[in-house]
Amino acid sequence: MLPKLIIHGGAGDNPDDKGGIAETRASLYQIIDAVYGKLTAGMDAIGAVTYACQLLEDEPRFNAGTGSVLQSDGQIRMSASLMNGETQCFSGVINVSRVQHPIDLAKYLQTSPDRVLSDLGAQELTRELNLPIYNPLTDQRLEEWLEERKTNFRRKMATVTRGTIGAVALDQDGKLAVGTSTGGRGFERIGRVSDSATPAGNYATELAAVSCTGVGEDILDEGLAVRIVTRVTDGMTLQEAFSKSFAEARARKRDFGAIGIDRSGAIAWDKTCAVIFAAYHNGIERGDTLG
Ligand code: ASP
Fold this sequence. Notes:
Layout lengths: L3 E9 L8 H20 L4 H14 L19 E7 L4 E8 L5 H8 L6 E2 L1 H10 L10 H11 L15 E6 L5 E7 L19 E3 L3 E7 L1 H7 L1 H10 L4 H14 L4 E7 L4 E5 L3 E7 L4 E3 L3
Parallel strand pairs: 3-4
Antiparallel strand pairs: 1-5, 1-11, 2-3, 2-6, 5-6, 7-8, 8-9, 9-10, 11-12
Helix pairs in contact: 1-2, 2-3, 7-8
The site of aspartic acid has 16 residues, from strand 8 and helix 6.
């Protein structure tokens, strides 16, 4: 079957907040082209979403890996997770520092008996795997942090920088997988846990796979990714599951977005905010959600 792919670089209220629509589109399309090429050459879904997350983590305009936002104490702590829809296996790391690709740790943990590690454990794993020490800090994120510090981090979220990343793929064999990676909400308390390494923010079965972005607390409150995937399992189409879940979210004034693919190859996305920065390949052509 024709592979399908959708990736996102966050959601937000200002379509320009990743440095301009044209630049964001170009960067998303470049990654779509690289990953879709691998999918058509036979890469499996879990390999493809891992590769997509690595490329998105390397893009400094997005809040994951290089370019992650700083927490209230001025440190970067990143979270990432993967879920293989075929094996229904979730793995992830929470609040890990000084690594280039947090998604690689999640990938390693797919075959480990302990599949979600937090700060200390994730750091030990980084050492055990001999991953080079890497500082993901960029000048822009540091300047934004210094600016927010003037008002004592009163904002709910780092609005300028919002941009967790995620990828959902359906491979040639009809297998689904999803990956999500984040620097967090920005300016949060030490120890805050993001939705991105929980099934609320990243979830897949053999029927559907969904990655979320936005205010993590809202995503957790809705159990968003699991909610959408379960609705598909219970018989809704992917589009129906998105529409119902987002109607409920709007009524509760939630602030987030999500992308997904189902086993038939349908691609869907939605958001309660102005824009979700996503691009896809539907087997025939590329498209995006940037308007
Ligand atoms: N969901 C992420 C978090 O709350 C942030 C984001 O999506 O930009 O940690």
